[in-house]
Amino acid sequence: MQEQEVARFEHAGDVRRMFVGSQGEKIVVREELEGPSVLVAYGEERKTLRVSLGADAVSALLAAIGFVGSDDSLWDYLASERHDIVDLMDLCDQRGIPYEFSSSGSGGDCQLRPAAC
What rounded mean pLDDT belongs to the chain? Predict the structure, then answer.
């Protein structure tokens, strides 16, 4: 998978990194979290959250971002500290944009939510 880091935010020992990449015909957004807040929120020292979007979903998402605020691209949306991957999923849910969600943690926990058909 080809991937590029879009943003990195650090506060009080917490680190949040956002990545965008492609895997086949899908766009993948990945958020890596680590630090004391992650331990409190997830019970693990590190957590990776991932959203995969097909081509039609990406087109719909880019149209939605244009209407939601001044950010005019997925890259700009994710590079803003105001937005995290949960905001992206909320936006997709509000607009009926299908995506696949997965997460994994340093303790070995994994989650998968396939895209709605």
Answer: 86
Instruction: Return the structure tokens found at 10.
Output: 């650090």
Three-state DSSP class for residue 51: strand
The Cα 6–Cα 105 span in angstroms is: 21
If you search the block for the tokens 């001044």, which residue do you land on?
A: 70
User: How confident is the model over 1-13, as pLDDT tens digits?
Assistant: 788 999 999 999 9
Local structure of 79: helix, strand or coil: helix
The answer to whether the beta carbons of residues 99 and 51 sit under 8 Å apart is yes
Token digits for 57?
Answer: 């979903």
DSSP summary character for residue 114: P
DSSP 115: P
Rounded Cα distance, 91 and 51, in Å = 12
β-strand partners of 20: 4, 29
pLDDT digits (tens, 9 = 90+) for 48-74: 999 999 888 887 887 777 644 444 578
Structure tokens given for 105:
């943690």
